Amino acid sequence: MNKWTDRPASDHPDLFDLGIEFINQFISKRAGLLAKVLPPLFGFGIFLLYFYRNQFYPSFDLFQFSSLLLAAAAIGFIGIGILVVALVLPGASIFHLFINTQAVKEEIRYALPYSLERRQKAVGKLALLAYILPFLISNLLSIGLLLWRPELFTPGFFLITAIVALMFGLILQGSFELKSFSFFTYWWAGFIALMIVGLLSGLILTNAAPVIDGMGNPVFKWVTILLIPTASAFIAGACAMSYFASNTHALHFSLFFGLGIAGFSGVLTTLPEKTVNKLGLGNYSAELLVFEPAFCDEVITTHTPASEDCTLAEAHIVWSLGEYWVIRPQAESTLQLQIPARFIKTMARNAK
Question: Which residues are CB-contacts of 147 (< 8 A; sequence separation ≥ 6)?
């Protein structure tokens, strides 16, 4: 596995390198089996968690509907994949379009001190100026603009990103004595990276918004709002720096942190509810449910909040596939009904 510095391999291999090598060999040997087994199992896990949270199980064998399992798995993989890609691309942009280009790479190597300790400090300085500081400053300025003047956010976000990328391009050119106009190479590579990191922070904030809104203490709320763009900048910087080892390292780092962000921001924890909603199977609101007249006899209506004309307005549909529908009279209701599907005559649902 070639390193960016092309230094000879150590006699004592790194445990992280050994772990990555083991994972790569495991995947390569069992790629076919994993491709067949993982998607349906992942999809089944999504549905199973949704059933557990809502305390019911459908009246059919879910494994008979392999297309549903694969569709659920696809939605889950896309949701997590977006986060992983958002962590992979910033480092790839700056590393492959700027740092690892022949001209810049040779100039930086020439500027690095011979002493190992001083060389490590110089590499740290390079990572700080190329990745972490521009990511951090751009994120904080963009969040500040969003909170201060949200109506100007879209043009302001592009302007902030362009200015920060240009500024650090000039700083890198001067610090490592790069050739003239090297800053321009960093400018457009950094502009792409900063845009993606900014969008990543926005995605995390959007998914974490319900948790932030539920915080009673305004101090905790503001700290969390500032912590998210700060943490995302450092995480994106760590993933970007792993390109100095190899593209494989960068992918594994991004996958690890992507899963962590998915869990923290709510992308992973709310995945069952979002998946069932996207597939149209449940977790949505019905403006009006019309039942068959046979359903609305005297015994049943005493336990079901249906109106005199045998309808139910603004019902929350938990599940609507199979022999039984699972319904709550309101979204926050503790009453949950399992109604035979044959008694559901008509449903009016908002398309959104």
Answer: 225
C-beta separation of 285 from 316 below 8 A: yes
Task: Give bridge partners of residue 319 from the DSSP assignment.
Answer: 326
Residue 126 CB neighbours (<10 A): 19
Q: How far apart are CA 5 and CA 99, in angstroms?
A: 12
Tens of pLDDT, residues 146-199: 888 888 989 999 999 999 999 999 999 998 888 888 899 999 999 999 999 999
Who contacts 108 (Cβ-Cβ below 8 Å, separation ≥6)? Answer: 99, 126, 176, 178
Whole-angstrom distance, CA of residue 314 vs CA of residue 330: 6
What pLDDT, on the 0 to 100 scale, is given for residue 8? 47
Of the candidates 173, 119, 92, the one whose C-alpha atom is nearest the C-alpha of residue 6 is 119
The dihedrals phi and psi of 144, each to the nearest 5 degrees, come to -60, -40
317 beta partners: 284, 327
In b/e form, how buried is each residue of 309-327, taking b as 16+ CB within 10 angstroms? ebbbeebbbbbbbeebbbb
**Confidence grade of residue 1 (pLDDT, cut at 50, 70, 90):** very low
- Label the pairing between strands 337-340 and 324-328: antiparallel
Helix (H, G, I), strand (E, B) or coil at 217: coil
